[in-house]
Amino acid sequence: MSNRSTPLTDTLHQYLLDVSLREPDVLKRLREETAQLPEHNMQIAPEQGQFMQLLVKMLNAREVVEIGTFTGYSALAMALALPADGHLLACDYNEEWIAMAQPYWEEAGVADRIETRVAPAADTLAKLIEQGRNGTFDFAFIDADKTSYDIYYERCLELVRPGGVVAVDNTLWHGRVADDRDPSEDTLALRAFNRKLHGDERVDLSLVPIGDGVTLARKR
Question: What percent of the chain has pLDDT over 90?
Fold first, then answer.
């Protein structure tokens, strides 16, 4: 028994991977190629990708929207968990990162499940709402610029159905959200966002200490 989460040492983290991670080779190779990029720290952890796959399956999700696709690891993980007629809308602003992702999506046989929108994500979400897509998505994953999290969250909350989930990455921000000595713009935005969700009665809430912190908000 324990009254708090167990801290993960390097040894314990490796043990977690050894006894839990089921990462297909195509995902592993995409993760390893991404690790060579200067922006590699934007990549989610493999155990987080597997956790999100489980969420997608538990929700029986068919419609997913992702804000911040980067090189496509999280999109690929979720697409693999979707049924054959499932659909994932991947939103990012960087065509080079999307181009890096696409061969892996094709190799995995899920490219037909993934639609990309290379544009400001806030605009893409607004257009979906204008098109009457409110309440038609099962799962949303937000992992993009932190100062826009509130905008993305509000629009995703409109788009997901009751019982659907909005997952938000980096909500522990490597511990900086709890460090009053850090007044950076991203940290302040995440602190305010976390406080807002804590009091948001529209959702059921849990901040899970996996990766850099993933907040799960289930729409009531």
Answer: 98
